[in-house]
Structures are given as C-alpha cells and as structure tokens.
C-alpha cells in the first residue's frame, strides 16, 4: 500500500474493500460490491461495538453477529482475518475453493467467528430472533443482581433481498411482539439486486414497515459517515425494549469507477482492469494483490486482542458466581456442555398395553411434561398449534415480553420463522429447543431444516397429524410426500414411532442425538399400545428398525412404520390363520437403521427373505431400498381425500384384507 495521509481507520476500511475485491477476483466468483460498500459498517462494529474474543469463538457472553446478506461474506472473512481470528491471508486467497474455510457463503463450524450458516436470504433475520430469545432466557434463568452473566447483543447485517423474503417479515413481527431489545439489525439499502435496480420489484417504505412491527427505527444516509453509524448503533444499544432497525444507505461497489451503483458488481468479479482502478482510487498499488499494510494489521490485531481481557473479566465474574450460586452455575455448565442431567431417563414414562389407544402426539406430550422439570434447557413451542401438537409444558409459563423465564413459546402462524428462530436457539449452548406444527406444514420449514442439517445442530421438530389418519381436513392437510422429503435431507434424523412406548424412546434418542436436526413424526389418531412382554422392546427403536414379531418359519417380511405397524401385526395374525408365517419389522427411522452394522441389518432383514411388503401411509418413493425387487408396498398412490380416517384407510387399501392379499400375491 502506498503511503497516504489517511488515518489508520480509513486505511483499515479501504483494506477491507480491496481485500474483498481481490478475493472475489482471484476466485473468479462471488459478490464484491456489497463487501466493498459495507466496509465502514464492519469496521465500526468490530472496532467499537462487538464484544468478542478472536481466540475463543465460543465465549458464552460474546455478542452474536449474523451476516444475513451471506453473499457479502468476504466482508466478514476480511474483518475476521484482520482482527485476529484463525483465518489467514491464505484462507482469504482461497475464497470459494475446495477445503477452504472461506466458503461461498458463511458456514458455521467451518470458519471461526461465523455464528450461523447464512446464504438463503431472510434466514439470518429469523436466526437472530432465536439468538435474542435464547439470550433473554439465559439471563432470566441465571443472571443475579451484580452478576449479569448474559447481557450480550445480537447484531445482523441485512440486505434488500432479506427484506423481500417473507420469512424476514414473519421474524420481524415476532421480534417486535416479544420486544427483543437485544436485537440490532443494520439494513444495507443499496437498491441493487441481481436483475438491476430494486425498483423493478420493491419500492415499499421499509422503515414504516418495521415501525409497524414495533421496532425502534433509525436511518443513516451514507454508510461512509462512520460517526452517524456510531451514533445510530449507540442509540440502538440504549433502546432496551424494542428491537432496533437501522436503514443504512450505501453505494454498491463504492470505489469502482465503472461498476459502482450497478448490478454488475453484485454477483460477479469486477474484472482485472477494474480492480486496478479500484486500487488506484483507494491509494493502493494496482500491481499488487492481497496487499495488507503491517500497520493496518497491527491496528486491528490490537483491537481484537482486547477481547481476551474482556473474556477474562467475564470468567472472573463467573468464578465468583459459582461461589455464590453453585447450584445454578453447575446447572448452566452441564447444560452448556451438551450433556443431560444424571438420571433424567428415570422420568421417562412407560405405557401399559391395557391403557387403551393413545395417539403418539399425546404420548409425546406426556413425555415432554414428564421430563421438562429435569432438563431446564428444554424449551419450545408451536406455530399456534400447541393444543393440537400436545407440546405445552404444563408446569411452566409462557415466554413473553413480561416473562423471559417462560419455557412455552407462541411462535404464531409463522412456521418458517419458527424454524429459523429454533435454529438460533439451538446454536446457543444451554438450550435444547423444539418447534411444533403439523407434518404438512414442514413444507414451510424446509429451508431451516436444511440449514440445521448443514450446520449439524440439533433442533427438535415435532410434526403431528402425520398421514391420512388425520381425516376430514382432507387433501390439503394430509401428508403424503413429506416423509420421503424429510428423509432425503442429509444429516436429518426422522423418527416415526409406532406407539406410545416407541414415542418415549424417540424422545430419548432426540435428546441424546448429535450431528443434525431431529424430526419426530406423530399421529393425530389413537393407536394401540404394543405389549412389551409379547413383542420386541420399544427400546430397540434406537437401532432404527427391529424385529417386532417373528416366526421361525417366516416366508416374508412385513415392514411398517408409525400407525401402520399395528396393521402389519393384524395382517401377520391373519396370514398365520391361513398357514403363512411372516415376520413383522417396525422401522421407525431409516437413518438410525443405516447407522447399524451389516450384521445387525442382516439379522432384521435377512437376504434370504426376499419377499417383503412395506406398509406406510405415505409415498412409496425410497422403499425399494428395503423391499428388494421381489417386494411390494402398501403406500399412498396419490393425494388423500376428505373423509373420516377409517374410511380413508379402507379406500386407500390400508386394511388387513388388502395387506394379506398383497402378501399372498408376493408368495
């Protein structure tokens, strides 16, 4: 970099701009314009407002930062490198390359300092609401006078694209209702999207929209006015009740003579010749790439190093807290470690076969209420469906703007935002969150489920009303393709239990699971409780599939999940009356079964038994893997109908007679 009369702060801001542009150019892929434009914003946040320690990216009381405008990730990577995170200049040079920390959009667990995976626009806006909820809950649960253990803020940078996505509106509405004053969102109003000016599709008054949601709203007319930025963020931090929204006007690709203010700088490199012009504009040597002045690096490193002292001060506070409040401290440390309290399993209920029919959603509710008091971090709610999904924790209050210690959440009819918020909660150590709705409405939640699977975090999604068994609500509400859709997501664990006791074990697996989200798929209608003395034990659910009822002379295997397991058992009995021996396998989770040894899989589905019939009130897609070429299915041929459940099961062939007929045809 050439010697200039610029202040070190100005040099730093320009270094972020040029570094970002260089990285995109070298990768020949990416979005340089927003990173260049928002360099002052990143500078102000990391040098004056964010509490962070680059040497410990998991410090419990650090401020959370979300780049919801994930396409501008070089902005984040540049400032992480400069402030001393474990991100090197080589990592910057390897932007968007194989095995690099600096992926095409920020990825949690891949790049140190990235608190959540973003990219799909609007997602980060909803994640921030979950982060903010989690902070409020932790503070209400653990903070004591003189011991503000958890008082961090949640910052996000959002784009025009975020504002256009519906999930952002859902999330903003919820945040305003809950009065999450620890949220500070900076909206980059650059009026450019890929197709050109946002006027093509977007001309609303975003400030008024957020005011209507109950947010504290400000604006900064020029992102380069760092003093105005500082004042706006200071004002936002002073606002304790309302979440804060700061509209900041910027010029995309600021410093580029020919591409600033145009869509040409949004989704593609500036070009080698334009990069040289940019460097001249900012006083850099146009012939050098990735040129970082040692004084600039020293300046940012010194600022980042202050975080070590901040964390040490907090660690001392927590040590004193442990002395004064040892039980609460131990409770938090255990929860934050990801472990469950010793002996919690003793609270799991057991259900007797003579108790009558019970819907698995009801069994799930009984499990939740039996264990909630034993697991303080287990919190969650539903998208206006707690009475139907049986997810209300009866011993506890609701989380509201007046009561931050409540453990029941009312997400409203905002399934997409609920999923994003639950992900933010799941990214907070000490919290085990769940969100519930009907299985059909998992369709609204595919983006957050997928992002949770990418991040390998463990939110628990409770999906009830899982088939045509919900009855009269009809085609629009009856899931068919949703099971295979969820099963198709890598790292996503789907469990469809057959009865109340399998539901107990499903919750046990969900709470102990690591490596991705868990989807519990539950019935509306009552199901018989399987006799644990007569059939295989429900504890075998952990293996994904197990032999429920066997015959040493079995000629075929009936494989079923959920509500259809009882049908398989009845068909087995009828077949036996006709002299045909069979085996019944309960298969609540394909994913768990695939984790088992080859020997165990062979013991459940032996190769010699090629005649197999899969029974599930859902799509047949995927079952070929388990039924072989000599097998068949009793599955849904299309969408459902509106009628009582009993009539629907008969109409679509989920009857003993049809299962027996198909089994005999196989033989």
Short account of what is shown:
Helix content is 40%, strand content 12%. The chain has 667 residues and is of the alpha/beta class. Helix 1 (8-27) crosses helix 3 and helix 1 (8-27) packs antiparallel against helix 11 (272-282).
Task: Summarize this structure as a short list of keywords or feature phrases.
667 residues, Rossmann fold, 25 helices, five-stranded parallel beta sheet, alpha/beta, single chain
Architecture of the largest domain in CATH?
Answer: 3-Layer(aba) Sandwich
Terminal residue distance:
80 Å
Q: How many individual helices?
A: 25
Fourth-tier CATH superfamily name of the largest domain: Thiamin diphosphate (ThDP)-binding fold, Pyr/PP domains
Q: How would you sum up the global shape?
A: elongated
Question: Taking Cα atoms only, what radius of gyration do you get, to the nearest Å?
Answer: 28 Å
Number of domains: 4
Proportion of helical residues: 40-55%
State the secondary-structure class. Answer: alpha/beta
CATH fold group of the largest domain: Rossmann fold
Number of strands: 18
- Range of strand content: 5-15%
How can the largest sheet be summarized? 6 strands, parallel
What is the spatial order of strands in the main beta sheet?
9-8-10-11-13-12
Uncertain residue ranges: none
Assembly of the depicted chains: single chain
CATH class identity of the largest domain? Alpha Beta
Could you report the average pLDDT, rounded to the nearest whole number?
A: 97
